[in-house]
Amino acid sequence: MLPVGALVWVSIRPLLRLVICATTGFLITKADIFPQVAARGAGQIMLNITIPSLMFSKIVPAFTPQNIGALGPLILVAALYQMLGIASAWIVKQFFWVPHRFRYGILVAGGWGNWGDVPTAVIMSITGSAPFNGSTDQSLSVAYISAFILVFFVSLFPMGGHRLVALDYVGPEVEDDDIRMPVKAKALGTIHTWIGVARSVYTVLANKPPKPLRDPEVPPITAKSMEENRGIAKEDVADVSLRHRPEIGSKHVSFYVEDSTAIQTEIISSGVGSPAPTEALHSMSRVTSASPTAAQIDSTIEILRVPQRAGQSVIASSKSRGFLRGTINQLHTLVKSLITPPAIAIISAIIIAIVQPLKALFVSIPTVYIPNAPDGQPPLAFILDSATFIGNASVPLGLICLGSAMARLKVPWNQWSRLPVGAIAWLAISKMIVIPVIGVLICQGLVNAGVIDREDKVLRFVCIFFSCVPTATTQVFLTQVYSGTGSAEHLSAFLIPQYAIMFISMTTLTAFTLRLLF
């Protein structure tokens, strides 16, 4: 077990390197040396070249048929963290006011964390030295990180997470004063809503049918009252047929059914009619009007109805076609998102790592014989070397872009009283303090349940560490695109406190996890 001093230093050293690298991006942006066009180009290089190269160079040698089963727990933990983040953001939204143009963006800020440059930089630094097993554990940790990155991309784009950001800018502008309400009143409203939901759930679980809503002055309907109403209806119909006998020269409108067999006809009746409309139909064979109407009607008019089966079949077929079209569109979006360079690199690397003859083309495997290149290396080892060389630029470039993005965030500090301070503070506390505590409990529970291998310390460290990451800066670019103005003023106020707390909470969590594992 490491001494306390060494444990603290091992935990804080990667963050110091992160701060130094991100600060360089911040400074060159403030000095106008790194304009927005250059930062956007660097981001494209990082996303489409360096990150895929880093993932490929680490996944191929790290994954084996023995440890590939770790992908299941990794994807499960990633999904749980996203659901926890969205739930915490929704709770914050219920108790604190949020700007109208950030009403859905807060859910994205809670659910999608920075699963790219920040955790990769810190985890690679920690697993590359004691108490871990050097480069072997470092490559394995990056391979495990790739599962989180894959979940991030799939959930944000194919599954439509980015559309939540777009929904913020749908509809007219609403002033903050119009949506701001007292916290106490909003909290009480939320509590009453939850109580109603709890009562509904209890009613369903207890198999108690809900009480029907009716006027207390109206007596309940019984079998006896139905028989009495049926008799009254017959008498009323008889009186109508006696009073309205056809007279000479009068125009009449007929509602009776002639000898028609091709199309079913029915009488138009009131919504509060007799329970037995067939009896009224026979009694009400012909009803006439004593005086001519404004439009002279000389012929018999029959009210026809299209058979219900034909209408239902048309509706069902249109629904099925709509469902099929929507499914095809979703599959097209999914396939389109999976042909991006990061997804291609991760999926192809996993396939190569599992299929041993393919893996032997890149790395040496004692159980598989492949003729080597003239230098004694596997024939495609140069591809892996190139990917490693390019991938080494991924983390520094990503941190420089992170510092540049933070330098461009504009927070209206002079209007601090008009900012949603409660939502900003509690979202930062939930993401950087509450969720990490829950994440440790979840991971320990999965270890005790046998889902996570107790002896795989790299897997346990990666799973716990990803519970303590701030909101992804990718949301900044999405907000700038969907806003139409290129601004992200609401998001910036939520990001800065999270990254400020990150240095304390991440150091504490890292030290606690290392002490838990070793």
UniProtKB/TrEMBL annotation:
InterPro entries: Ecm3-like (IPR040254), Mem_transp_PIN-like (IPR004776). It is found in: Membrane. GO terms for biological process: transmembrane transport. It is a multi-pass membrane protein. The keyword Zinc does not apply. Keywords: Membrane, Transmembrane, Transmembrane helix. Pfam families: Mem_trans. The keyword Transmembrane helix applies. GO terms for cellular component: membrane. The chain crosses the membrane at residues 15-33, 70-92, 104-126, 138-157, 334-355, 423-446, 458-478, 498-517. This is Auxin efflux carrier.
